Amino acid sequence: MKQDRINQRTNNLVGTNIKKLRLQRNLRNADIVAKLQLEGVPITTGTFCKVENGSNNPSVDLLFALTDILRCDFNAFFAL
């Protein structure tokens, strides 16, 4: 099944915001990945790091799962 993805090729705002939100909550990448895996989102720490750095495009499913983990609104990923 194909998942819709957010394209970060020319703008890694989403990844930057994910990292900012994670750091504000004093969470490590491994903490986030473990919680995502418990939510049924198959992701590795390496892939999650690439999402934060903008070299991998996050799926919409990943972003929805992150709203629960990071306790934020979906729009927070797109804030300037």
Number of helices: 4
> Average pLDDT, to the nearest integer?
93
Based on the structure, what is the oligomeric state of the protein chains? single chain
Fraction in beta strands:
under 5%
List the uncertain runs: none
Helix and strand run: HHHH
**Rg measurement, Å:** 11 Å
Main structural class:
mainly alpha
How many angstroms separate the termini? 32 Å
**Strand segment tally:** 0
Overall form? globular
Q: Report the sheet with the most strands, covering strand number, pairing sense and barrel closure.
A: none
Helix percentage: 40-55%
Describe the structure.
It is a single chain. The protein is an all-alpha fold and 80 residues long. The protein has helices at residues 13-24, 29-38, 45-53, 60-69. Helix 1 (13-24) crosses helix 3. It is globular, with a radius of gyration of 11 Å. The relative contact order is 0.25. The mean pLDDT is 93.
Secondary structure topology:
Layout: H1 13-24, H2 29-38, H3 45-53, H4 60-69
Helix pairs in contact: 1-3
Keyword list:
0% strand, 80 residues, globular, mainly alpha
Concise overview:
This protein has helices at 13-24, 29-38, 45-53, 60-69. It has 80 residues and is an all-alpha fold.
